Amino acid sequence: MTRAESLKTILSQDPNNTLARYGLAMEYAQSGQTDQALHEFGTLLSANPDYAAGYFMAAQTLAKADRVPEAREMLENGIRAAARKGDSHAQSEMQAMLEEISG
């Protein structure tokens, strides 16, 4: 069983498992399955709107796919989420990426 299959099994039993959802999104992103990755990131962020890592990795996935305007929007949302949680590290990482892709 692949890692993605294992994560899907976990999610079939517990669709709200944040770490499994994030892991599946990352598996898709790393294997170049951008649409599937973004779908999983979207599901993750709908259920967990303050999950800063989800925004950051979704933005990286979008940027890698040359979908820069969407990546910028994702980073802006992620920066707000990180600020709500008081996660200055995630906030600064996303701010740096936003500046980098905005030129």
What's the short story on this structure?
By secondary structure, this protein is mainly α. It has helices at residues 3-13, 18-30, 34-47, 52-64, 68-85, 88-102. It has a single domain (3-102), classed as Tetratricopeptide repeat domain (Serine Threonine Protein Phosphatase 5, Tetratricopeptide repeat, Alpha Horseshoe), CATH 1.25.40.
Q: Report the radius of gyration as a whole number of Å.
A: 13 Å
Could you say which structural class the secondary elements and strand pairing correspond to?
mainly alpha
Beta-strand portion reads under 5%
The CA-CA distance between the termini, in Å, is 42 Å
What fold name goes in the CATH topology slot? Serine Threonine Protein Phosphatase 5, Tetratricopeptide repeat
Tell me which CATH architecture applies here.
Alpha Horseshoe
Helix percentage range = over 70%
Key phrases:
mainly alpha
Structure description:
The chain is built from six helices and no strands. The model has no long low-confidence stretch (mean pLDDT 96). The protein has one domain (3-102): Serine Threonine Protein Phosphatase 5, Tetratricopeptide repeat, CATH 1.25.40. The chain has helices spanning 3-13, 18-30, 34-47, 52-64, 68-85, 88-102. The protein is globular. Helix 2 runs antiparallel to helix 3 (34-47) and helix 3 packs antiparallel against helix 4. Helix content is 82%, strand content 0%. It is mainly α. The longest helix has 18 residues, at 68-85.
